[in-house]
Amino acid sequence: MSKEDEITSWFARQSRLDPKRFPIGIGDDMAEIQLAEGVSVLITTDTLMDGVHFDLSSCTLEQAGYKAMAASLSDCAAMATVPLCAVAAVSLPTDFGIEHLKQLHAGRVRAGEPFDCEVVGGDITKWRHPEGKLVLCYTMLSRPSGHHPPVRRSGAQVGDLICVTGTLGGSILGKHLEFVPRVREALEMTRLARIHSMMDITDGLSTDLNRICTQSGVGALLEAEAVPISEAARRMPDPLEAALNDGEDFELLFTLREDQWEKLKGFSMVPLTVIGRITDSRRMQIRMPDGRVEPLVPRGYDHL
Amino acid sequence: MSKEDEITSWFARQSRLDPKRFPIGIGDDMAEIQLAEGVSVLITTDTLMDGVHFDLSSCTLEQAGYKAMAASLSDCAAMATVPLCAVAAVSLPTDFGIEHLKQLHAGRVRAGEPFDCEVVGGDITKWRHPEGKLVLCYTMLSRPSGHHPPVRRSGAQVGDLICVTGTLGGSILGKHLEFVPRVREALEMTRLARIHSMMDITDGLSTDLNRICTQSGVGALLEAEAVPISEAARRMPDPLEAALNDGEDFELLFTLREDQWEKLKGFSMVPLTVIGRITDSRRMQIRMPDGRVEPLVPRGYDHL
Predict the structure, then answer these.
(1) What is the predicted pLDDT for the residue at A15?
(2) Residue A118 sits in the same domain as residue A233
(3) Could you tell me if B20 lies within 8 Å of chain A, comparing CB atoms?
(4) How far apart, in Å, do the first and last CA atoms of chain A sit?
């Protein structure tokens, strides 16, 4: 278990949330708050820092603003919920002015507009020391779709097919700044089929699949030859390794019964690929191209 | 107008929020999202940074966690709304570990527990450069009280009395780390009386009163002798100046009609003081102890 997952599960154990008021608490892509009979709202918060999640020496402020908003939208997609709005808190370097803020704003508008998701408030503060770097903390609200409950990480069942959208790996070569969050795809998939568990791949397939397995109390067997490797990953020294462990793919990882998979056969918004199956072993394994079955070790990004 | 207010109003002008979906948008203490007939939720986000809002060389992590949570609760108080829950995003220095996170957690529990307000989710990231300092970004949800609509900054009316809770100034000497957010007081005041406008004093009375005046399209005349000066401010070189311009009092500033003020006569949770009156002049003025009326210049904290 990564250090991040260790502390997250410590926080989850501390928390004594009333499940009637908070149907989904710590440890999922979003938390859910029940406000009235049949009315709930979901919330996610994410911090993006210069030098960690983006690098202002090689990307624009507009791109950083885009990425922050798109990353939050990707959390809405991960639960198959409908984005409502966001608030944006920014910590600015000392030499930042209003023009810099307007560039950030342009990026978040570009990310949010296709999903009718606006920024409704925020907070602006400035570092006092010259080394202080840009921090973007965006928090987003969404609502259940109405046709499918929010999809959790913990719902995977033995025998489920494991699937992903798109292709994986090498996001650092460009996609991490320009990905389109899979909001529409998630809503359409859950309109067509019942999905047992889902999340977006932010820290690498191996690490994120481990989260689904741990939270669902199940194991997994991946087929190495089935993993859809991106063009970018093919330019890396070990393309399979990149597809398994690179962070920030922002694709969807989900599991569902075989009969539900049949309902997604005509799905055309993005390629969907079956990459393995949920097992009762409580271990993660991968069948390599030569037929050997090896342990699949979570080697994705650990934030701590 | 401060640089912060300048950019906030630029953002507000850019925003094309549908007032049916978003009854309160950019520029107030919280934004309001309408989710269903009669069901809405409010949201506020705040960033607190080491070296700006707290200083880890002279305060504990527990105190920093307390302050971050209490500052968000103070925004709920500012609108007289009921806190629901928070999400916490933290950016950690490179030498931070799980024990540090547990200290932050202890502080936010101490702040939230009296208000039944728990953290339901969050995000943890770590700086990669050794100069990276702690950033706490807390986002809180609240709901309308049911007995009084959320109180906005823009509702002040000519002839209103201008009032404050508690005493002002010198918060830097200690109160800024240990204040109790005025959530209960705000809810009780709005149960007893109709309040036209309200906010919490975070950037100094002069600057925050200017926000109420600007957003309400009115002026104000303060009575210097009526301003309740804190014990801490009395230890400053110019106590009145401290009470007018020091930030982080986290007291409530509100305006109401004289007949509504009568209804607060027996209020005992915290001292309430009338410090002036809303005028139709669109200017802020202050009557000094010698009787001279001078311009009241917003000299509080500007975050930009």
Answers:
(1) 84
(2) no
(3) no
(4) 12
Decide if A288 is inside a domain. yes
Domains contained in chain A, number? 2
With respect to residue A230, please indicate whether it lies within any of the assigned structural domains: yes
The answer to whether residues A137 and A187 belong to one domain is: no
Would the CB atoms of A31 and B91 count as touching at under 8 Å?
Answer: no
Whole-number Cα distances in Å, A105 to A66, A93, A101, A111, B267: 8, 16, 6, 10, 44
Q: Which residues contact A240 (CB under 8 A, 6 or more apart)?
A: A224, A227, A229
- Best of B120, B126, B143, B202 to mutate (most A CBs within 10 Å, chain A): B120
Residues 6+ apart with CB under 8 A from A53: A67, A71, B125
Looking at the structure, do residues B86 and B134 belong to the same domain, yes or no?
yes
Contact A133 B133 (CB under 8 A): no
Cβ pair A72, A107 in contact under 8 A: no
Q: Which of residues 215-234 of A touch B (CB under 8 A)?
A: none
The CATH code of the domain that includes B190 is 3.90.650.10
Say yes or no: A63 contacts chain B, CB-CB below 8 A: no
Are residues A135 and A100 in contact, defined by beta-carbon separation less than 8 angstroms? no
Measured in angstroms, the CA of B251 and the nearest CA of chain A are apart by: 19
Q: For B42-65, write each residue's pLDDT tens digit.
A: 999 999 999 999 999 999 999 999
Q: Is residue A300 assigned to a domain?
A: no
Regarding whether B175 and B90 lie in a shared domain, the answer is no
pLDDT (tens digit per residue) in A155-166: 999 999 999 999
Q: What pTM was estimated for this model as a whole?
A: 0.95
Please indicate whether, in this complex, the C-beta atoms of A121 and B36 are within 8 angstroms of each other.
no
Total length of chain B = 304
Q: Return residues 93-112 of A near B (CB < 8 Å).
A: 97-98, 101-102, 105, 109
Q: Give alpha helix (H) positions in chain B.
A: 3-14, 61-78, 98-112, 175-178, 183-192, 205-216, 231-234, 239-245, 258-262
Structural domain containing residue B67? 3-144
**pLDDT per residue as tens digits for the range A258-299:** 999 999 999 999 999 999 999 999 899 999 999 999 999 998
Domain boundary among A93, A109, A144: A144
Does the CB of B123 have a partner CB in chain A at under 8 Å?
yes
The ipTM is 0.94
Contacts of A14 in chain B (CB under 8 A): 105, 109
pLDDT in tens, A87-139: 999 999 999 988 999 999 999 999 999 999 999 999 999 999 999 999 999 99
Which tokens belong to B72?
Answer: 């968000």
Span A55-101, pLDDT tens digits: 999 999 999 999 999 999 999 999 999 999 999 999 999 999 889 99
B129 at A interface, C-beta within 8 A: yes
Tell me, what CATH number does A46's domain have? 3.30.1330.10
